[in-house]
Design brief:
Blueprint (H helix, E strand, L loop, with lengths): L1 E3 L6 H12 L4 H22 L2 E7 L2 E10 L6 E9 L8 H15 L4 E7 L5 H9 L2 E12 L2 E9 L6
Parallel strand pairs: 4-5
Antiparallel strand pairs: 1-2, 2-3, 3-4, 5-7, 6-7
Length: 163
């Protein structure tokens, strides 16, 4: 397994395939991921505000994270995306990607990582993943995404917050 932070044009299609393989995301959400990818490719991570970590197996992307500093905050970052191709799930790749993002955010003096997900049953493994990886639920917004589809907000503190 190899990891990189620089996006390539071919990652637009690969990220779509990763997200589609999970069966979790609406088409509109996948389009948003595409927009963030294109923004990074056209402006770079620093100017776009979207930082990617790509996990590759045999030079083929199989997982990724996308995160960025929240404008107007001192030390808060959003984890916009973390996804692993269905064929690679259960192998610890998500944990590695989460740790990489948290370490990089801490290196940028980030202390708080904010993560949002759905309360739908399909997302139960996702919520368990976050809890097992040092995140805590700090809020739930009822009917945010739709009727009976609440937004669950997690917070993960980085090593920078303990210094």
């Amino acid at each position: 397994m190899n990891f990189r932070q620089t996006l390539m044009a071919s990652d637009v299609v690969a990220i779509r395939e990763i997200l589609q393989s999970t069966g979790f995301f609406y088409d509109s959400e996948i389009e948003i991921a595409k927009e963030l990818t294109l923004e990074n490719l056209s402006k770079g991570a620093e100017n776009s505000g979207y930082i990617f970590n790509i996990a590759e197996n045999d030079d083929r992307p199989v997982g990724f994270t996308c995160y960025g500093k929240i404008p107007g905050t001192a030390d808060s970052f959003d984890l916009y995306w973390i996804a692993v191709h269905q064929s690679q799930r259960g192998k610890g790749l998500g944990k590695i990607l989460m740790e990489m993002a948290a370490l990089h955010i801490a290196q940028m003096a980030g202390k708080n990582i904010w993560i949002e997900t759905s309360s739908r049953a399909i997302y139960e493994p996702t919520r368990i993943f976050y809890l097992k990886n040092g995140c805590e639920i700090v809020a739930e917004l009822p009917d945010f995404y739709g009727e009976n589809d609440h937004k669950v907000i997690f917070l993960k503190k980085t090593e920078a917050s303990h210094q």
